[in-house]
Amino acid sequence: MDLRAIGMGLAFALMWSSAFTSTHIIVADAPPLAALALRFALSGGIGIVLALAFGQSWRLSRAQWRATIIFGICQNALYLGFNWVAMTTVEASVAAIIASTMPLIVGALGWIVFRDRIPPLGIAGLVAGFAGVGIIMGARLQGGIDPFGLGLCVAGALALAVATLTVRGASGGGGGVLMIVGLQMLVGSVSLAVVSAFTEHLSVEVTPTLAFAFTYTVIVPGLMATWVWFRLVGRIGAVRAATFHFLTPVFGVAIAWAVLGEHVDWHDALGVLVIAGGILAVQISKQEARR
User: Fold this and answer.
1) What are the two backbone dihedrals, phi and then psi, of residue 50, each rounded to the nearest 5 degrees?
2) What pTM did the predictor assign?
3) Which residues contact 103 (CB under 8 A, 6 or more apart)?
4) E strands present in 133-176
Protein backbone atom coordinates (compact mmCIF):
# COMPACT_ATOMS: atom_id res chain seq x y z
CA MET A 1 0.00 0.00 0.00
CA ASP A 2 1.63 3.27 -1.11
CA LEU A 3 1.51 6.66 0.62
CA ARG A 4 -1.19 7.97 -1.74
CA ALA A 5 -3.48 5.06 -0.87
CA ILE A 6 -2.86 5.62 2.83
CA GLY A 7 -3.70 9.31 2.43
CA MET A 8 -6.89 8.47 0.55
CA GLY A 9 -7.88 5.94 3.22
CA LEU A 10 -7.32 8.42 6.03
CA ALA A 11 -9.26 11.12 4.16
CA PHE A 12 -12.17 8.74 3.57
CA ALA A 13 -12.29 7.63 7.20
CA LEU A 14 -12.19 11.24 8.42
CA MET A 15 -14.93 12.45 6.06
CA TRP A 16 -17.12 9.40 6.66
CA SER A 17 -16.80 9.65 10.44
CA SER A 18 -17.59 13.37 10.47
CA ALA A 19 -21.11 12.64 9.15
CA PHE A 20 -22.27 11.57 12.61
CA THR A 21 -21.48 14.97 14.09
CA SER A 22 -23.00 16.97 11.23
CA THR A 23 -26.09 14.75 11.35
CA HIS A 24 -26.50 15.38 15.08
CA ILE A 25 -26.54 19.13 14.34
CA ILE A 26 -29.12 18.71 11.55
CA VAL A 27 -31.62 16.58 13.47
CA ALA A 28 -31.62 19.06 16.36
CA ASP A 29 -33.49 21.55 14.12
CA ALA A 30 -35.09 19.52 11.31
CA PRO A 31 -37.25 16.39 10.90
CA PRO A 32 -34.65 13.62 10.48
CA LEU A 33 -36.32 11.54 7.74
CA ALA A 34 -37.35 14.54 5.65
CA ALA A 35 -33.87 16.05 5.94
CA LEU A 36 -32.25 12.75 4.99
CA ALA A 37 -34.60 12.32 2.02
CA LEU A 38 -33.64 15.78 0.78
CA ARG A 39 -29.97 15.02 1.29
CA PHE A 40 -30.22 11.88 -0.84
CA ALA A 41 -32.26 13.63 -3.51
CA LEU A 42 -29.56 16.29 -3.87
CA SER A 43 -26.57 13.92 -3.62
CA GLY A 44 -28.18 11.34 -5.89
CA GLY A 45 -29.19 13.90 -8.49
CA ILE A 46 -25.71 15.42 -8.58
CA GLY A 47 -24.15 11.96 -8.76
CA ILE A 48 -26.33 10.90 -11.71
CA VAL A 49 -25.65 14.14 -13.62
CA LEU A 50 -21.92 13.69 -13.13
CA ALA A 51 -22.17 10.02 -14.15
CA LEU A 52 -23.95 10.95 -17.39
CA ALA A 53 -21.31 13.61 -18.04
CA PHE A 54 -18.64 10.91 -17.64
CA GLY A 55 -20.45 8.69 -20.15
CA GLN A 56 -21.92 6.25 -17.65
CA SER A 57 -25.29 4.63 -18.36
CA TRP A 58 -28.23 3.56 -16.18
CA ARG A 59 -28.64 0.43 -18.28
CA LEU A 60 -27.69 -1.92 -15.49
CA SER A 61 -27.65 -5.68 -15.36
CA ARG A 62 -30.33 -7.51 -13.35
CA ALA A 63 -27.82 -8.17 -10.56
CA GLN A 64 -26.82 -4.51 -10.47
CA TRP A 65 -30.45 -3.34 -10.30
CA ARG A 66 -31.09 -5.83 -7.50
CA ALA A 67 -28.05 -4.58 -5.59
CA THR A 68 -29.02 -0.96 -6.24
CA ILE A 69 -32.55 -1.41 -4.88
CA ILE A 70 -31.48 -3.51 -1.89
CA PHE A 71 -28.73 -1.11 -0.93
CA GLY A 72 -30.91 1.92 -1.60
CA ILE A 73 -33.47 0.63 0.88
CA CYS A 74 -31.22 -1.08 3.43
CA GLN A 75 -28.24 1.29 3.48
CA ASN A 76 -29.76 4.65 2.67
CA ALA A 77 -33.32 4.28 4.00
CA LEU A 78 -32.98 1.81 6.89
CA TYR A 79 -29.36 2.14 8.07
CA LEU A 80 -29.09 5.91 7.82
CA GLY A 81 -32.79 6.48 8.51
CA PHE A 82 -32.54 4.61 11.80
CA ASN A 83 -29.33 6.47 12.67
CA TRP A 84 -30.73 9.92 11.89
CA VAL A 85 -33.83 9.27 14.02
CA ALA A 86 -31.68 7.76 16.78
CA MET A 87 -29.49 10.84 16.95
CA THR A 88 -32.44 12.91 18.11
CA THR A 89 -32.01 11.12 21.46
CA VAL A 90 -28.48 9.62 21.54
CA GLU A 91 -25.07 11.20 21.10
CA ALA A 92 -23.22 11.23 17.80
CA SER A 93 -20.37 9.23 19.36
CA VAL A 94 -22.76 6.41 20.27
CA ALA A 95 -24.10 6.24 16.71
CA ALA A 96 -20.56 6.23 15.32
CA ILE A 97 -19.50 3.39 17.62
CA ILE A 98 -22.49 1.19 16.77
CA ALA A 99 -22.19 1.92 13.03
CA SER A 100 -18.50 0.98 13.13
CA THR A 101 -19.44 -2.57 14.13
CA MET A 102 -20.96 -3.28 10.71
CA PRO A 103 -17.80 -5.07 9.42
CA LEU A 104 -17.86 -7.19 12.58
CA ILE A 105 -21.53 -8.07 12.09
CA VAL A 106 -20.87 -8.98 8.44
CA GLY A 107 -17.98 -11.20 9.50
CA ALA A 108 -19.99 -12.88 12.24
CA LEU A 109 -23.06 -13.50 10.05
CA GLY A 110 -20.89 -14.75 7.20
CA TRP A 111 -19.21 -17.18 9.57
CA ILE A 112 -22.45 -18.39 11.19
CA VAL A 113 -24.88 -18.36 8.23
CA PHE A 114 -22.69 -18.86 5.17
CA ARG A 115 -19.98 -20.93 6.88
CA ASP A 116 -17.28 -18.55 5.65
CA ARG A 117 -13.81 -19.62 6.70
CA ILE A 118 -12.32 -17.17 9.20
CA PRO A 119 -8.72 -17.56 10.39
CA PRO A 120 -8.04 -17.51 14.14
CA LEU A 121 -6.97 -13.86 13.93
CA GLY A 122 -10.36 -12.97 12.47
CA ILE A 123 -12.24 -14.85 15.20
CA ALA A 124 -10.17 -13.08 17.84
CA GLY A 125 -10.98 -9.78 16.14
CA LEU A 126 -14.72 -10.49 16.22
CA VAL A 127 -14.60 -11.34 19.91
CA ALA A 128 -12.50 -8.26 20.71
CA GLY A 129 -14.70 -5.94 18.64
CA PHE A 130 -17.94 -6.97 20.31
CA ALA A 131 -16.22 -6.91 23.71
CA GLY A 132 -15.24 -3.30 23.03
CA VAL A 133 -18.87 -2.45 22.32
CA GLY A 134 -19.84 -4.11 25.59
CA ILE A 135 -17.31 -2.01 27.52
CA ILE A 136 -18.71 1.24 26.13
CA MET A 137 -22.41 0.41 26.16
CA GLY A 138 -22.28 -1.07 29.66
CA ALA A 139 -21.06 2.26 31.00
CA ARG A 140 -23.42 4.28 28.78
CA LEU A 141 -26.49 2.29 29.85
CA GLN A 142 -25.64 2.95 33.49
CA GLY A 143 -25.33 6.63 32.58
CA GLY A 144 -28.89 6.78 31.23
CA ILE A 145 -28.56 6.39 27.45
CA ASP A 146 -31.90 6.19 25.62
CA PRO A 147 -32.46 2.45 24.93
CA PHE A 148 -34.83 3.14 22.01
CA GLY A 149 -32.26 5.27 20.22
CA LEU A 150 -29.59 2.67 20.92
CA GLY A 151 -31.88 -0.02 19.50
CA LEU A 152 -32.37 2.00 16.32
CA CYS A 153 -28.60 2.25 15.85
CA VAL A 154 -28.24 -1.51 16.26
CA ALA A 155 -31.13 -2.17 13.85
CA GLY A 156 -29.50 0.08 11.28
CA ALA A 157 -26.15 -1.71 11.51
CA LEU A 158 -27.91 -5.08 11.16
CA ALA A 159 -29.86 -3.88 8.11
CA LEU A 160 -26.68 -2.77 6.35
CA ALA A 161 -24.85 -5.98 7.26
CA VAL A 162 -27.67 -8.15 5.88
CA ALA A 163 -27.76 -6.08 2.69
CA THR A 164 -24.00 -6.44 2.28
CA LEU A 165 -24.23 -10.22 2.54
CA THR A 166 -27.31 -10.39 0.30
CA VAL A 167 -25.76 -8.61 -2.66
CA ARG A 168 -22.19 -9.85 -2.36
CA GLY A 169 -20.88 -11.02 -5.68
CA ALA A 170 -23.39 -8.96 -7.67
CA SER A 171 -21.35 -7.41 -10.44
CA GLY A 172 -21.07 -7.16 -14.16
CA GLY A 173 -23.31 -5.45 -16.69
CA GLY A 174 -23.42 -1.83 -17.74
CA GLY A 175 -23.64 1.39 -15.80
CA GLY A 176 -20.80 2.67 -13.66
CA VAL A 177 -19.93 3.18 -10.02
CA LEU A 178 -21.07 6.81 -9.81
CA MET A 179 -24.34 6.03 -11.59
CA ILE A 180 -25.10 3.10 -9.27
CA VAL A 181 -24.35 5.18 -6.18
CA GLY A 182 -26.58 7.99 -7.45
CA LEU A 183 -29.46 5.62 -8.17
CA GLN A 184 -29.07 4.02 -4.72
CA MET A 185 -29.42 7.46 -3.17
CA LEU A 186 -32.59 8.20 -5.14
CA VAL A 187 -34.10 4.87 -4.05
CA GLY A 188 -33.36 5.82 -0.45
CA SER A 189 -34.73 9.34 -0.95
CA VAL A 190 -38.08 8.13 -2.29
CA SER A 191 -38.44 5.52 0.47
CA LEU A 192 -37.66 8.04 3.21
CA ALA A 193 -39.91 10.73 1.73
CA VAL A 194 -42.91 8.37 1.80
CA VAL A 195 -42.32 7.43 5.45
CA SER A 196 -41.68 11.05 6.42
CA ALA A 197 -44.94 12.19 4.84
CA PHE A 198 -46.90 9.93 7.19
CA THR A 199 -44.84 10.25 10.36
CA GLU A 200 -43.26 13.70 10.58
CA HIS A 201 -44.43 17.28 10.99
CA LEU A 202 -42.51 19.31 8.42
CA SER A 203 -41.52 22.41 10.34
CA VAL A 204 -37.99 23.76 10.00
CA GLU A 205 -36.35 26.95 11.20
CA VAL A 206 -33.36 27.42 8.91
CA THR A 207 -30.34 28.77 10.76
CA PRO A 208 -26.78 29.36 9.51
CA THR A 209 -25.60 26.38 11.59
CA LEU A 210 -28.26 24.08 10.12
CA ALA A 211 -27.57 25.28 6.57
CA PHE A 212 -23.83 24.72 6.94
CA ALA A 213 -24.23 21.27 8.53
CA PHE A 214 -26.67 20.16 5.82
CA THR A 215 -24.53 21.46 2.96
CA TYR A 216 -21.47 19.84 4.48
CA THR A 217 -23.27 16.50 4.84
CA VAL A 218 -24.44 16.53 1.22
CA ILE A 219 -21.04 17.41 -0.23
CA VAL A 220 -18.39 15.89 2.05
CA PRO A 221 -19.67 12.57 3.45
CA GLY A 222 -22.32 12.25 0.73
CA LEU A 223 -20.29 12.84 -2.44
CA MET A 224 -16.60 13.38 -1.69
CA ALA A 225 -16.21 10.44 0.69
CA THR A 226 -18.03 8.14 -1.74
CA TRP A 227 -15.82 9.27 -4.63
CA VAL A 228 -12.62 8.81 -2.58
CA TRP A 229 -13.79 5.38 -1.42
CA PHE A 230 -14.30 4.02 -4.91
CA ARG A 231 -11.03 5.54 -6.11
CA LEU A 232 -9.35 3.80 -3.17
CA VAL A 233 -11.04 0.48 -3.97
CA GLY A 234 -9.91 0.81 -7.56
CA ARG A 235 -6.35 1.43 -6.39
CA ILE A 236 -5.87 -1.25 -3.72
CA GLY A 237 -8.98 -3.46 -3.83
CA ALA A 238 -12.08 -3.65 -1.63
CA VAL A 239 -10.65 -5.94 1.06
CA ARG A 240 -7.57 -3.82 1.71
CA ALA A 241 -9.55 -0.59 1.47
CA ALA A 242 -12.02 -1.87 4.07
CA THR A 243 -9.16 -1.95 6.57
CA PHE A 244 -9.57 1.81 7.01
CA HIS A 245 -13.00 1.24 8.57
CA PHE A 246 -11.18 0.49 11.82
CA LEU A 247 -10.66 4.26 12.13
CA THR A 248 -14.41 5.04 12.11
CA PRO A 249 -14.98 4.68 15.88
CA VAL A 250 -11.76 6.57 16.65
CA PHE A 251 -12.49 9.52 14.36
CA GLY A 252 -16.24 9.47 15.07
CA VAL A 253 -15.80 9.81 18.84
CA ALA A 254 -12.95 12.34 18.50
CA ILE A 255 -14.92 14.63 16.16
CA ALA A 256 -18.05 14.49 18.34
CA TRP A 257 -15.90 15.40 21.36
CA ALA A 258 -14.13 18.27 19.56
CA VAL A 259 -17.16 19.80 17.80
CA LEU A 260 -20.12 18.95 20.04
CA GLY A 261 -18.32 18.73 23.37
CA GLU A 262 -19.61 15.20 24.02
CA HIS A 263 -18.25 13.56 27.15
CA VAL A 264 -15.61 10.88 26.70
CA ASP A 265 -14.33 8.83 29.64
CA TRP A 266 -11.91 5.96 29.99
CA HIS A 267 -14.60 3.37 29.16
CA ASP A 268 -15.11 5.07 25.79
CA ALA A 269 -11.38 5.37 25.08
CA LEU A 270 -10.69 1.74 25.98
CA GLY A 271 -13.74 0.43 24.12
CA VAL A 272 -12.94 2.42 20.97
CA LEU A 273 -9.37 1.09 20.90
CA VAL A 274 -10.58 -2.49 21.40
CA ILE A 275 -13.23 -2.13 18.65
CA ALA A 276 -10.71 -0.57 16.26
CA GLY A 277 -8.26 -3.38 16.96
CA GLY A 278 -10.97 -5.98 16.40
CA ILE A 279 -12.03 -4.49 13.06
CA LEU A 280 -8.40 -4.27 11.95
CA ALA A 281 -7.81 -7.91 12.91
CA VAL A 282 -10.88 -9.06 10.97
CA GLN A 283 -9.84 -7.15 7.86
CA ILE A 284 -6.24 -8.38 8.02
CA SER A 285 -7.49 -11.97 8.39
CA LYS A 286 -9.60 -11.50 5.24
CA GLN A 287 -6.52 -10.41 3.33
CA GLU A 288 -4.57 -13.43 4.58
CA ALA A 289 -7.43 -15.78 3.68
CA ARG A 290 -7.39 -14.57 0.06
CA ARG A 291 -3.67 -15.10 -0.44
Assistant:
1) -65, -40
2) 0.84
3) 242, 245, 279, 282, 283
4) none
Compute the Cα dihedral for 287, 102, 197, 212 and give only its sign: negative
CA distance 291 to 287: 7
User: What mean pLDDT do residues 219-236 have?
Assistant: 82
In the chain, pLDDT over 90 holds for what percent of residues?
Answer: 28
How far is it, in rounded angstroms, from Cα 134 to Cα 2?
A: 35
Report the candidate in 184, 160, 195 with the shortest Cα–Cα distance to residue 41.
184
Phi-psi region of 117 (alpha: psi -120 to 50; beta: other; left: phi over 0): beta
Which DSSP symbol is given to 291?
Answer: -
Three-class secondary structure assignment of 12-42: HHHHHHHHHHHHHHHHCCCCHHHHHHHHHHH
Q: Is the pLDDT of residue 195 over 50?
A: yes
Contact 92, 74 (CB under 8 A): no
Q: Report CA-CA distances (Å) from 29 to 9, 88, 198, 209.
A: 32, 10, 19, 10
Which run of H or E residues covers position 158?
A: helix 147-166
Rg (CA), the chain: 18
Among residues 48, 5, 61, 38, the alpha carbon closest in space to that of 234 is found at: 5
pLDDT reading at 289 higher than 90? no
pLDDT exceeds 60 at position 170:
no
Q: Are 125 and 285 in contact (CB under 8 A)?
A: yes
